[in-house]
Amino acid sequence: MSKTIRLTAAQAMIKWLSVQMTSEGERYIDGMWAIFGHGNVAGIGEALHAYRDVFPTWRGQNEQTMGHAAIAYAKAKKRTRAMALTSSIGPGSTNLVTTAALAHVNRLPVLIVASDVFANRRPDPVLQQIEDFDDGTVSANDCLRPVSRYFDRITRPEQLLTALPRAMRVLTDPANCGPVTLSFCQDVQTEAYDYPEAFFDQKSWRIRRPEPDADELSHVANLIKLAKNPVIIAGGGVIYAQAEETLAAFSVKHNIPVTETQAGKSALAQSHPMNFGASGVDGSAAANAALTEADLVIGVGTRLQDFTTGSRTLFNENATLVSINIHGYDAAKHASESLVADAKIALEKLSQAIPDYKAQAPNLDARADWLRAVDVYCARPEDQAAKPTDGQVIGAVQRASNDKTVVMCAAGTMPGALKLLWQPAQGGYHMEYGFSCMGYEIAGAMGIKLATPDREVICFIGDGSYMMANSELATAVMRNIRFTVVLTDNAGYGCINRLQTLGCSGEPFNNMYVDCNIETQPNIDYVAHAASMGAHAIKVSGTDMLEAEVKAARSRNIPTVIVIDTTAKDFPGTGIETTAGPHGFFWDVAVPEVSERQEQRERYLLYLDQIARQSRVN
Questions:
Q1: How many CB atoms lie within 10 A of CB 229?
Q2: How far from 144 is each of 15, 103, 232, CA to CA, in Å?
Q3: What's the pLDDT score for residue 287?
Q4: For the chain, is the Cβ count within 10 Å smaller at the N or the C terminus?
């Protein structure tokens, strides 16, 4: 007869998670972020306390932002490790919907343990309970179903015996990786069960590397052999497959230039001779010219979303599209010729199948012209008293950075500017742009630093995004987690204002503070605000002072917040001319078909011309 151990369901879950290991012998779930409330304080809270020596608990300030920290941690770990979250019922759970959606879009692992109402329904309705008048099984946690890769409601203690292994299977599956939600009824958390002792044996989880189908491999190899000027688009899948060196060798051996998505940027250092920079809407002149002229486009580990493809207008209509992806869903997009496999294995096998193939020489002059244009755009401004552009801010931070620097961001102006202008060392770039979630930045910077304590983490954030979510700055101070925040203040939502006025020919309205229906213009003291949470905070005037403060931040063991006023008018990626010619590409943002304004009517006619070029193939 097998031996058992009597535990509450919550105790069993934490004990089990503490012995799930990576193949390298590290704990796969590296602790749990927790905000306690009714629904988890007595059950999960007690269990976390009982196992605190083997399974750490991290206290957050907001469920959404502690989720962002966990997601950034998993991304920085290249999906080899993850974190868990627990929330109380009601608003605690619904605060995690954005977190789950962000992880879902970005294919990143996070375990959400959302407390639920009573399974026995005895005290219904309880505080914060959502009642569906027509369905007694619905709770607030059902909001998490469409944004979870796997969802399970735990209504009996023994259900953990199947639910937990299923959760780990999804978290460690490179194809189906994403958020897992365990909706854990609060009474069930505290109920005891005689669990088999063997259930708590240490287990190692290996992340598989699927090999390509032989026929698909042969077909794609033949397509490459026939191509004269192929171009690669490197996505996040290159980094998650740890295929950076393989991609570098493949591109050099076969003379194929590499362009980047937001998730794939820094798979190759910008200094790599075959790195032509960013593709698509916020792409470089060199990358977009290469992609426009390519007869074969090879996506590696990319979802091929609209920013990458110029809303399906970037590629030559006669070009063939190949998609190498771990998941068949992504590999088949845009009627691509699919190669479903691990990116590293696929590139190695392809190189073996085309040993002597070399493409025509790529346009290295275009690459050099583009990099010279970047230097001009990011150069130190002569007038240090004037508000700098975002490019000049980036240039100052670039000059202060080193090969250990990781820059990160999420939404607003800076993602496009950084993708276009930042020149990282390999692994020196972290962008959440799949969901483009404002408020990810500060919590995400903390998660990156937890995952890579030997790296310098620099967080770019605009004033609009800072106002949305900044409270995890206090968490970082409490835990002595050091990173640097560069807060660019342009007095509003400058990015969307440009889209509204320049991109869509609208009138400036409700984005910049000066264009809002308010009686008093705000004068927010971001330095005082950040300092009140314990961070070292300073406002700088000019990029020289910014550069000096970025360097000085390395001497501290707490976050540093550097505030700088910037102009909202100048931004690369919206049709600006540079010495390398126009860059950026069409982005399909619908404009009104009917308007009283002549400028708006003219913009709609231009929009019709642009969408007529879109590929209709899905």
A1: 18
A2: 25, 12, 36
A3: 96
A4: N
Residue 341 CA to residue 301 CA, distance in Å, equals 10
d(C-alpha 445, C-alpha 442), whole Å: 5
Task: Kindly provide the residue ranges of all beta strands, DSSP E only, lying in 416-483, ordered along the sequence.
Answer: 429-431, 456-462
Contact 600, 591 (CB under 8 A): yes
pLDDT of residue 304: 94
Residue 403, pLDDT score: 96
Q: Kindly state the helix (H) or strand (E) to which residue 369 belongs, with its residue range.
A: helix 364-377
CA distance 333 to 329: 7
Per-residue pLDDT, 617: 59
d(CA 391, CA 135): 54
Q: How far apart, in whole angstroms, are the C-alpha atoms of residue 509 and residue 14?
A: 50
What pLDDT shows up at residue 571?
Answer: 54
Encoded amino acid at 41, one letter: V
**What is the CB neighbour count within 10 angstroms for residue 76?**
22
* Sheet-wide strand order for 405-409: 429-431, 405-409, 456-462, 484-489, 560-565, 536-540
At residue 410's C-alpha, the angle toward residues 405 and 415, to 5°, is 75
Spatial distance between the Cα atoms of 398 and 412, rounded to a whole number of angstroms: 19
Half-sphere exposure of 285 (CA within 13 A, CB side): 22
Residue with tokens 């927790």: 34
CA–CA gap between residue 594 and residue 607 (Å, rounded): 13
Q: Which domains does the chain have, with CATH numbers?
A: 4-205 (3.40.50.970), 214-367 (3.40.50.1220), 378-565 (3.40.50.970)
| Upper half-sphere CA count for residue 431 (Cβ side, 13 Å) | 27
Structure tokens at 440: 């990810």
Bridge partners of 184, per DSSP, are 115, 154
In the chain, DSSP finds a helix count (H) and a strand count (E) of 24, 24
Q: Please give the structure tokens belonging to residue 476.
A: 């970082």
| Residue 552 to residue 482: CA distance in whole angstroms | 12
User: How many residues comprise the chain?
Assistant: 618
Q: What is the mean pLDDT of each run of 10 residues along the chain (618 residues)?
A: 93 98 97 96 97 96 97 98 96 97 98 97 94 94 98 98 98 98 98 98 97 98 98 98 98 98 98 96 93 97 94 92 97 96 98 98 95 93 93 97 97 90 97 95 98 98 94 97 96 79 81 87 95 98 97 97 86 40 71 88 87 75
Q: Rg of the Cα trace of the chain? A: 25
Going along 329-423, which residue ranges are E strands?
337-340, 405-409
DSSP class of residue 27 equals B
Contact 154, 167 (CB under 8 A): no
Residue 384 DSSP code = T
On whether the CB atoms of residues 406 and 329 are closer than 8 A, the answer is no
Instruction: Tokens for 493, please give them.
Output: 């939502």
Q: Cis peptide leading into 453, omega within 30 of 0?
A: no
> Apex CA 139: angle with CA 138 and CA 145, to 5°?
85
